[in-house]
Amino acid sequence: MPALQTPAGVDDPVNAEILKVSEDQIAGFLRDPLAEISRRSGVEREAVIARIRAMLEAGTIRRVRQTLLATNLARGALVAWQVSGDRLDAAFDFMSKEDPFSGHVVIRTADAATPGSNYRLWTTLKVPQGYAIEKHAEFLRVAVGADAFRLMPAKRLFALGVGHIRRRGLEPGSRAEVPADVLDTSIIELSALEWQVLVALKREFAPAELVPDLWAARAAEAGVPLETFYQIAESLAARGAIGRFSTFLEHVKPVAGNARVTRYNALFHWRVPVGREIDAGREVGRHHIMTHAYWREGGPEFRDVNIMGVAHGLDKDVLLAHKAAIDEHLREAGIDVAYTNVFWGGRSEIKPSEIAPSAFSEFYLARGIDPDTLRA
């Protein structure tokens, strides 16, 4: 069936079955991830390829790529930026279009009385191994005219996987039978050859690249035999460097048929007792609504919150009901919450952060800056 005739909306029942799997259920590195999506969704492999291609061409899927556990490959942080209102949109544009090391770029709002409500611009930020994230953040502060910023590196991760379609219809309080696993954020050092393979591995797929022999062209791009490519990718996965093979949907923007996958993006904050951060994070992360959950230190700017998480949905009241259920569960688990709040996402642009050392050097050299001055 020609791609133009293939349904490309998220509400098509076959597409929905594919997306329930392909968004965030194909963990690690697989030699044939498209066949695994077919097996789990019950949709024939040829149809899986045609449908994902059609959704990518229509903009329903914004990107298809092998994700990395970048927290284990580069220094990273969630960053809150204090930017004056007249500079906010320009700062957003710079972070989303000009800085390849800024990932999720979101303008957030909270009640005016909320601590930190003057920090409207939020980004994820990563810098390659050997460079100082503080120095790159300072470069960005000057570039966009921000008044201040707060770096909040993740100390532990408890949930990481944006599966919008499979989360539709979840009841508030829905959670796993056991607390979430704890993901460490220790940096893994790679050889030059491993970086060579990783750069080819992580590049987004164009529609025409979605073929049964998915990795052959990437192995050629990396300059290694296909079997060597497989072995290195599988080794990286075993060492905790690989995330999942994923199809990413637009978070808020209308997609094919003017449908929206989600309307609301909520960043939840909790302050729990020192020493209970991992316990609390595991209890938050076990809730199925959470796409992200992590231990980050908000500092005095955000009333010393230390557990943060993100949830998405079509109904704001339903998201608040999910949060209320999590709050109640924390109380039942014997974890005191001294303070909690919600920052709501508005304008957003979601892209992967570049982490290749060569890209960082090229970025600064193009601006007449010696990248060695950014060394940690």
Concise summary:
This protein is an alpha+beta fold and 376 residues long. Helices cover 34% and strands 22% of the residues. It is built from 12 helices and 12 strands.
Strand content: 15-25%
Total E-strand runs: 12
Strand order of the largest sheet: 6-3-5-4-12-9-11-10-7
Structural class: alpha+beta
What is the tally of helical segments?
12
- Tell me which oligomeric state these chains represent: single chain
Secondary-structure element sequence? HEHHEEHEEHEEHHHHEEHEEHEH
> Which outline best applies?
globular
Mean pLDDT: 93
Low-confidence stretches: none
Distance between the termini: 53 Å
Q: Which radius of gyration do the C-alpha atoms yield?
A: 21 Å
Helix content: 25-40%
What does this structure look like?
By secondary structure, this protein is of the alpha+beta class. It contains 12 helices and 12 strands. The chain has helices at about 15-20, 35-40, 45-60, 90-100, 135-145, 165, 190-200, 215-220, 225-240, 275-285, 315-330, 355-365; strands at about 25, 60-70, 75-80, 100-110, 120-125, 150, 155-160, 240-250, 265-270, 290-295, 305-315, 340-350. Strands 6-3-5-4-12-9-11-10-7 form a 9-stranded antiparallel β-sheet. Strands 1-8-2 form a 3-stranded antiparallel β-sheet. Helix 1 crosses helix 2 and helix 2 crosses helix 3 (about 45-60). It is globular, with a radius of gyration of 21 Å. It starts with 12 loop residues before the first helix and ends in an 11-residue tail after the last helix. The mean pLDDT is about 95.
Task: Write the SSE topology.
Blueprint: H1 13-22, E1 26-27, H2 33-41, H3 45-58, E2 61-68, E3 75-82, H4 88-98, E4 102-109, E5 121-127, H5 133-144, E6 148-152, E7 156-160, H6 164-167, H7 192-202, H8 216-222, H9 226-238, E8 242-249, E9 264-271, H10 277-285, E10 290-295, E11 307-313, H11 316-332, E12 339-349, H12 357-365
Antiparallel strand pairs: 1-8, 2-8, 3-5, 3-6, 4-5, 4-12, 7-10, 9-11, 9-12, 10-11
Helix pairs in contact: 1-2, 2-3, 7-8, 7-9, 8-9
